Amino acid sequence: MSRQSLGRRGEDLAADHLEACGWQVLARNWRCAHGEIDIVAEDPEGPTVVFVEVRTRSSARAGHPLESIGVRKRRTLRALAGAWLAAQVQWIPRFRIDVIGIVWPPDEVPELTHVRSLS
Asked: Cα-flanking dihedrals φ and ψ of residue 102, to 5°?
């Protein structure tokens, strides 16, 4: 399976996971000049708009997918969240950035880890 295909499957799994938890997916693969937000969803607790970065790997040999979120990516995610918020007509009082890491070995059940409030 190609890296792109694995990433797409991971994003689909993450969106399904969020919806199963009662979240509403507002946007997927939202793009602007700063880059792309994988998933924008509403967590019913609050309610809170959540910007979700999804990282999927076929194994953890090179480290867990969550380990690939560095300082530069965090800065980009904050800029993307700001751009999405600025593009909205209504004011959004509560928001945060989450990360979902998925390890999905071929022909095995994927392991999903959801980290709330990436700092």
From this structure: -125, 125
**pLDDT of the residue at 69:** 93
The three-class DSSP label of residue 35 is: strand
Please tell me the distance from the alpha carbon of residue 102 to that of residue 112, in angstroms, as a whole number. Answer: 5
Domain containing residue 26: 3-115
Query: Which pLDDT tens digit goes with each residue over 21-49?
Result: 999 999 999 999 999 999 999 999 889 99
pTM of the model: 0.93
Residue showing tokens 């509560």: 94
Whether 68 contacts 56, CB under 8 Å? no
CATH of the domain at 37: 3.40.1350.10
Tokens, residue 36: 């792309």
Domains of the chain: total: 1
